[in-house]
Amino acid sequence: MGVPILSIEDLCVEFRTPEGTVRAVDGISYTVEPGETLGIAGESGSGKSVSLLSILGLVPQPPGRIVRGRAIFGGQDLLRASRKKLRAIRGRDIAMVFQDPMTSLNPVFRVGDQIAEAIEVHRPAASRQEVRRRTVELMDLVGLPDPVRRYRDYPHQLSGGMRQRAMIAMAIANAPALLIADEPTTALDVTIQRQVLDVLKLARDQTHAATILITHDLGLIAEMADRVMVMYAGRVAEAGPVEAIFHRPRHPYTVGLMASRPRLDVSQDTLTPIPGQPPSLIKVPPGCAFHPRCFLYGGHYGGRARCVENRPDLRLVDGAQHLAACHYAEELRDG
Prior knowledge:
With 335 residues, this protein is an alpha/beta fold. The chain has a domain at 1-90 and 226-335: Rossmann fold, CATH 3.40.50. Helices cover 31% and strands 22% of the residues. It is built from twelve helices and twelve strands. Strand 11 and strand 12 (323-324) form a beta hairpin. It starts with 5 loop residues before the first strand and ends in an 11-residue tail after the last strand. The model has no long low-confidence stretch (mean pLDDT 87).
């Protein structure tokens, strides 16, 4: 492989709260290669979004605080870049599609003007006519009907799916090297999810951007991603190629996520949930954070001291790229 587009090393992010310090991201490391799509999965509160918001300077400080780590992009550490430099990178080299377009779009400005602004900020020499033409092209590219008319619409005049399309148009306006999509289909119905997914694929192909897809939807990751990173309690539980993770999961948490999703190839009367609840990030369980919910720790094993006493390292478990943070990963078998 060549030089990664993004390399995150030992990133740790905390938030100070009246109840105590929340360790939202706890020492994660990963890379994103040119042209690939990395899917990041996990339950709410696992640290998926915070890790990327922090490297873009979008975590308020305070209450947030980057304790340590590096985020190398284009040969520089984003965590130590100036605000001016980050503003130049955001929207030009790295672009983000947020979860809720209604709160991401300004309700008092026309949709076309907001997309146009993303171009003007990074291309100040472009004429007004050039910017407008490019904006209409982008709106047409992402499938907004009658883009010339929709240019003048306000966000409340668009449906949820159309607003998300507008956000994707804004994100790809400057052909970024890295596109981040944070739960891009969560608030949409199934039919619109399919359409937005197709637009994301088109956007990725048009820009040739590396993509990070943050989602709790494993089906979306299976369809879009080349590699998967599963997070739990601010840490990486498992990472590897899509096929390996889906067919040969080597962490009990990943096994639980797979078992809890509905399937069309088998008859299911009920889904199998993961027992218990995610831990408080103010007081994460010792050792392996997942052990209170883990079938390898409890059940007929009666509890294993190693799971409580030692935090498992992320290690190779199956092939050259498949990693899992579980002391007993080898006990999990195919299927």
